[in-house]
Design brief:
There is one protein chain. With 226 residues, the chain is α/β, with parallel strands linked by helices. Helices cover 46% and strands 13% of the residues. It has a single domain, classed as NAD(P)-binding Rossmann-like Domain (Rossmann fold). It contains seven helices and six strands; from the N terminus they run βαβαβαβαβαααβ. The strands form two sheets. Strands 3-4-5-6 form a four-stranded parallel sheet, sandwiched between helices. A two-stranded parallel ribbon has the order 1-2. Strand 1, helix 1 and strand 2 form a beta-alpha-beta unit.
Length: 226
């Protein structure tokens, strides 16, 4: 397995954790915003591991801000960071995936691409575009390469650690989530593993929501819990 990040310290720590599980891992510093770096990084990954079977893109994010304060540069940055990075990685990886007979590409989208909420114009629009790009890629690359996405809800990653510390925020999120809890990174990892593996060999062009039911329509949260 090859893991990328813009920060050597972080990516080395991730690779070390993978090695502790008995899996071969190689760490590399790659900026997903640099097309040349991505192409070089994919080539290096193949050289180190010998082949490429699965690509997982987890690059994304954007700062929330009111719609009227969202400038062109914010929209462009959100699109570049969330949509272009994934398409760039897929474009660089496809020739190597084809060399091994096919493979799987997994993108990380977001429940915000389906929800309507204030303050997320740039991010929500970009994630909705990620979902459509997955469907379009799946159509172009099938049957040899599958393309899918996982769309998480609120998950207790380091970036959202403040949720666990702010009781009102946590309670508000849990109360509008049918599963009545915030997601764990392992919830997302399990879905990615499914899409990366042969267990999902007949699945492509799909956006799998892993959000505790947050985006499932017609849940009546006014009823008492069982």
């Amino acid at each position: 397995m090859v893991v990328w990040s813009r920060t050597l310290e972080q990516v080395e720590a991730t690779a070390a954790a993978i090695r502790d599980l008995g899996v071969r891992a190689h760490a590399a510093v790659v900026d997903a915003g640099d097309a040349d770096a991505v192409e070089a990084g994919v080539s290096e990954a193949v050289a180190v591991m010998g082949r490429l079977d699965v690509v997982v893109n987890v690059v994304g994010g954007a700062m929330p801000r009111p719609a009227m304060a969202t400038k062109d540069r914010h929209l462009q940055a959100a699109f570049d960071h969330n949509v272009v990075t994934g398409l760039r990685l897929a474009r660089s990886a496809v020739p190597y995936l084809l060399d091994t007979g096919g493979g799987s590409i997994v993108m990380i989208s977001s429940a915000v691409g389906h929800l309507v909420d204030r303050g997320y114009l740039a991010y929500g629009t970009a994630k909705a575009a990620v979902d459509q790009s997955v469907r379009m890629l799946a159509a172009d690359l099938s049957p040899r390469i599958r393309v899918n996405a996982v769309a998480p809800g609120a998950v207790l990653t380091e970036a959202l650690a403040f949720i666990a510390e702010d009781e009102p925020t946590r309670t508000a999120i849990e109360s509008r989530t049918p599963m009545r809890r915030i997601g764990d990174p392992d919830d997302i990892a399990a879905a990615v593993l499914y899409l990366a593996s042969d267990a999902s060999s007949y699945v492509t062009g799909q956006i799998i929501a892993v959000d505790g039911g947050l985006t499932t329509p017609n849940f009546d949260l006014g009823l008492p819990d069982l």
